[in-house]
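Morning - arginine inputs below, output right after.
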Amino acid sequence: MMRSSFLLLLLCHSSSSMLLGWVESPGYPSGYPPHATLNWSRCAPEGHILSLKLIHLDLEDSHDCENDALKVYSGEDQISILCGTVEFEELESTVNPLLISPSGGCLKLLFQTDYSNPKRYHGFRGFYTIHDFDECEDDLSNKCTQFCHNFVGGYRCSCHHGYQLAEDKHICNVSCSKDLSGMSRGEISSPSWPDSYPENANCLFTLSVEPHRQLVLRFSAVFDVQQGPDSQCKDALRIVTQTKTLGPFCGNKPPPSPISTHSNQVQIYFTSDETGENKGFRLHFETIEKVCQSGVIANSKMTPHKQEYKSGETVTVICDVGYVVNSKGALALSTQFETTCQTTGSWFPSYSCEIVDCGLPQIESNSILELVDVPAQKTQYNAEVQFMCSSEYYKLKGHDTYTCNATGQWVSPGDKADMPKCIEVCGVTSNSISSSGRILGGARASLGQIPWQLLIKSPRRGGASLINDQWAVTAAHVVDGVDESMIKIFGELVDGQESDRTDVLTCERIIIHPGYEQGISSNTRTNYDNDIALIRFKTRVNLGPNICPICLPDVNRVMLEDEQGTVSGWGGTDRYRASRFLLYAHISVYSLDTCRSTPVLPKVGTMIFTKNMLCAGADGKDSCGGDSGGPFILPMLSPAGGPYHLAGIVSWGAPCKDGANKGYYTKVQNYIEWIKNTIKGT
Ligand code: ARG
């Protein structure tokens, strides 16, 4: 007991510290038990620190103190781990100085022992004190820029004469703000000019004159505002007008003078940091009448063009190409407007020039024509869109890329505003022909081999050819006198009986060539001139591999004598009056002379041959009753063939069983104009 009191006297040398109490291990000093634990913690009030002095430490020693240990924490950080026997002198010199809490924080002890001790150890004992923390001694703990004064539990800052303590109570700055409102001329300079300006200056100079006048600033040649090595401004001058901020300015070159601020209210900010010896700046300000500026309306030009305009002057603002006037709600797209310079230095009226937006191109709903995905907002001036056809049975006619032009239209190269079209792919098959055959002596076609072939089942049996996705062509005599609603026409089949299962193509209109002599029975008809008719379907045919159109011939194509082609249909064969399956036969175009010697039909008489006909056949091969209206195509259907075109329409002929093998066909070439005009006209 004597010894402890003596030590206490020795240790409590600091007058500001106060003994708070003792802490010791369980069973001290007789020895701590196995599995002992002590969890101890004390906290210091604000502005104070807690310190622990160990006067005795006698624990089992082990590597990293893993058996028995006294761990000391300052706040959350472990600051020491102790074990073994440490002499008092050593505790005092190396251990105790470290055992302190953070200012206003806690000190924590964690004492833990394991299951056994080789011998008996006393444990530890220490006392703790609190004392004031001197923030002024520690640069990190106070933020005073000039003077720091410590007191028990805290500190305060103070400033040199001429400075004032800022609101944060730490920074000393110079009061240098001036309100110069109403003054139309004068001088402004950095504090202490022409001597160096002080540290931590924070000045605001406020200038304000009548609304129709503007402030003009002129800097003196001497200009010295501290700049960092990276040319960043350490100290800075900023000029804030009604519309913009100029600066920060620093370095040794004054801002280019004079500065026309175009503003009747200007704020000049000057700030310095805590270092540097620089002279600062000086400027003269005065006022002039406000003027209007060019270039204040984006994306436009003014005519007549000048840098500045006096109040009362009127100009025309012309938007740049691709921009239009946004005159709030006015729908008409205009690219220019007139505006007048006001005494306030602003233009009236003032509209903006905004970029033209074409919007998305208008495409009919459920059209084959489609847009390749357009990114949102990409419909403005100069934006591009790409068209495509959604079905492989069509190809794009025209350009595929369109650009949004300055007048808000989508145009193709060459400035054409007509939209591209998706045109049916014609005359190609996805199913090639295998071997040659016959109708009268014909071979069976498989599905998709003659995909344009249509079957008219009633009221009169015949054939027809699809020529685009909504029109078919047939012989006039097949549909002469037939009501649209009566006609049953099918596609996409080769087995005529399957038509029961296939949808009818709904016929909307039948147009018989005006040159065809209507209403004459085949029993008496000698003239089949212009034996051609068009059928329009109610809806677009859904094109696919088994139904797609045949091409029309080129008007100028020369048909050669002996040229081989293919005729097809469900007409009579040598065995039956009509075929269940679609048959085709390869036949040759006969010479004009052969055609001219027309057959004499029993009961009818001598038939008339006109320039609108061709005749064709082959040994044992011919079209026959029921094939009428069907296609005779060129070139001959073959594996590598196509594109095919419709050279003839089965029209009439010598009785097919009599062996003449001479069929007459409407020469489609002569009707291209009529077909195109008729289709266009509906
Ligand atoms: N007029 C017949 C019909 O309506 C076609 C006759 C074709 N005759 C011929 N020998 N090629 O089906």
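Note: The first helix runs from residue 2 to 11.

O.
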